[in-house]
Specification:
globular, mainly beta, 2 helices, single chain, nine-stranded mixed sheet, Barwin-like endoglucanases, about 10% helix, about 45% strand, about 120 residues
Length: about 120
């Protein structure tokens, strides 16, 4: 039986913008995606620490090095600039892969600077 485990997480990253007219997804600084192993167009969960809303969407590549996280499309109705969110991606793992698996996590401060790598 395969198990679903966390691949990577952006912990308490600050939303820098919302674009309700964009056709969907979450724009993320590619430096962050690469650091935690989230691929462009990969399904992700976005957990809003400010309002408790949880949603599924997919990651798209934003501008490199800008420290931006933009909530797009319908999801933009559930976040405001300044909200803290947790972005998670999960994957299926075979039993023999589980013991060696280590998810990658970035923890952010209130200015979207990485303060810890887990």
């Amino acid at each position: 039986m395969n198990r679903e485990l966390l691949i990577g997480k952006l912990h308490r990253v600050v939303v820098t913008g919302v674009e309700p007219e964009y056709p969907g997804s979450l724009s993320v600084d590619p430096d962050w995606l690469e650091a935690v192993g989230i691929l462009p167009y990969e399904k992700i969960q976005v957990l809003n620490c400010n309002n408790g809303y949880r949603l599924e969407t997919y990651a798209i590549v934003g501008e490199r090095g800008k420290g931006q996280l933009v909530v797009n499309g319908a999801a933009a109705r559930h976040a405001l600039p300044g909200d803290r969110v947790i972005v998670c991606a999960f994957g299926q793992f075979a039993p023999d892969e589980i013991a060696a698996h280590k998810p990658r996590v970035l923890v952010f401060d209130d200015r979207n600077r990485i303060i810890e790598r887990l």
